[in-house]
Design goal:
It is built from 15 helices and 15 strands. It is an alpha+beta fold. One of its GO terms (biological process) is protein ubiquitination.
């Protein structure tokens, strides 16, 4: 027997235990921290003494959780009653905010290498009263008596008259999540495909580039939108007078073609197809030239893609040339990978016999000093190996004085 329920205005319906169940929706409130950190170096500590009680040295502001923060270091302390016996250290809210809740950690770094850091932290422990609340801009959290000055000046925290302070901030954020009532499959972005087809068709092109006798048609607005260098060249006050056909020097035709491919497709082309050779060496050579072109036209994403490709393809016969390229175009991760590879004893001798090493010595002699440092870090065996070979083989000869060449061009 069912029951009778009122439903809506004067509407009766029968219900029974067999009625379909009512859908249940779920929402969840989540509270978490948005974390960030900043390292602040106080150089010339002894000169900062005497600035006055309550006077501070401030770090640059840094942003965490949508708010700006700054580290305040008081060389003579913050409180008059301490009579400059302590240094004070605080983290301050440097932007507008009301009741900003956050966790903090202030660390004075041990510079002896023993990692006996002085740490005051909210993180990793239960707080009876919850996160600290900063009420307004200029509110601070920290310690008036962070460290006694006499002890600080005799400690390993002070080295070469410099202190190193690390600050961590975790801004507390709360938000509510609810189950989605829809499910729409979103296709991947295809804007690159559309622009790529525009390049292939040549429709609407309004500028030509002559590269090694080859002509490439393109669109000024697309080039200017992607590259600040092209923007200046095509629309700036010093734009080329003959902007209908621009001759490009010092770039090979396949490299310029790859550059245009990236500008329109936002992706690397197949290197082997461009050079017509199915070899890893050809792809590496192409990536080297394309990295230089990317730097020339300020295409940072392309530069990073080439840097990543070259990091994955480090080899004996190309690594010295790649290292020179990394140094000239400020690719620091690529430079580190190359130095580490060459410093391995079994690689070092072979690399020194390549033409690329000769080019490296001539174009970037300062890198050889860094290479020696990496060799030293490998270990005593590596140091001896380098000392043995450097005396007789830095000119690219083998141990019998015979010249060994490995062409990579």
């Amino acid at each position: 027997m069912g029951t009778i329920e009122f439903c809506g205005d004067y509407c009766l319906k029968a219900s029974s235990s067999s009625s379909p169940s009512v859908p249940v929706t779920i929402s969840t409130s989540r509270t978490d921290t948005v974390n960030g950190s900043h390292q602040f170096k106080v150089s010339g500590y002894s000169l900062s003494k005497g600035v006055g009680i309550g006077k501070y040295i401030a770090s640059e502001t840094f942003v965490v959780g949508g708010y700006s923060w700054a580290i305040y270091f008081y060389p003579d302390g913050k409180s008059i009653e301490d009579n400059a016996a302590y240094v004070s250290l605080f983290i301050a809210l440097a932007s507008e905010g009301t009741d900003v809740r956050a966790l903090f950690a202030l660390t004075l770094l041990d510079q002896s290498g023993k990692e006996r850091h002085k740490v005051h932290s909210h993180f990793g422990r239960v707080l009876d009263s919850g996160p600290y609340t900063l009420k307004y801009r200029g509110s601070m959290w920290g310690y008036k008596r962070f460290f006694k000055r006499t002890l600080l000046e005799a400690s390993d925290y002070l080295k070469n008259d410099c202190l190193s302070i690390h600050c961590r901030v975790g801004v507390v954020k709360s938000y509510t999540e609810a189950d989605k009532v829809y499910s729409i499959a979103l296709p991947p972005s295809n804007i690159g495909k559309h622009f790529g087809k525009l390049l292939e068709s040549g429709k609407g092109s309004d500028v030509n580039f002559e590269v090694d006798g080859e002509i490439y048609a393109a669109h000024k607005l697309v080039l200017a939108a992607r590259s600040p260098v092209f923007k200046a060249q095509l629309f700036g006050p010093m734009k080329d007078q003959n902007s209908q056909c621009i001759k490009v020097e010092d770039i090979m035709a396949p490299v310029f073609k790859a550059l245009l491919h990236f500008i329109y497709w936002d992706a690397l082309p197949c290197m082997q197809e461009l050079v017509g050779l199915n070899s890893r060496w050809a792809s590496t050579l192409m990536a080297q030239h394309l990295l230089a072109a990317a730097d020339r036209y300020a295409l940072e994403r392309l530069k990073l893609l080439c840097e990543s490709e070259l990091c994955d393809s480090v080899a004996i016969n190309t690594v010295a040339t790649t290292l020179a390229l990394a140094e000239q175009h400020h690719c620091y991760q690529l430079k580190g990978v190359c130095l580490k590879f060459i410093a391995v004893p079994e690689n070092l001798r072979a690399v020194m016999q390549t033409d690329g090493f000769e080019h490296l010595k001539e174009s970037c002699p300062s890198v050889l000093t860094e290479l020696l440092q990496h060799v030293a870090m490998v270990g005593d065996h590596s140091v001896k190996a380098f000392a043995y070979t450097s005396g007789s083989c830095l000119d690219g000869s083998d141990m019998d004085g015979r010249r060994v060449k490995r062409r990579i061009y």
